[in-house]
Amino acid sequence: MTLAEVASAMAYLHAHRITHRDLKPKNVLLKSASKDRRGFSAKVSDFGLSQVLPDTNRTQVRLLSMAAPSMTTLFTGGHIKAAHAYGAMRHTVRE
Fold it and tell me: pLDDT tens string for the chain (95 positions)?
């Protein structure tokens, strides 16, 4: 459930053309939530590197190499970078 909350938060940001640009376990906070069976909910934090993308109808498509997403120019919106960060978090976190 915690990683699903993070994924939902990132989907919300991307729907509003905002990229977080620093998603990592350290930037996911747990807030007390008595209505949640776990007793907490996850909140994405630290928007210091976030960026609001311009509203354009153009989509850039470039060939992606095996390089880390931070080393390549990617699709508009940073979705690939967020997916890479989410995958890295999923690999290191056990639910």
Answer: 688 899 899 889 988 888 888 888 899 999 999 999 999 999 999 999 998 888 765 544 443 444 455 444 444 445 556 666 667 666 666 54
Number of residues that this document lists for the chain: 95
Domain ranges of the chain: 2-92
Determine the angle formed by the axes of helices 2-15 and 79-92, rounding to 10 degrees: 170
By annotation, the residues acting in catalysis are 22
CA pair distance 13, 7, nearest whole angstrom: 10
- Tell me if the pTM is above 0.85: no
CATH homologous superfamily of 2-92 equals Transferase(Phosphotransferase) domain 1 (1.10.510.10)
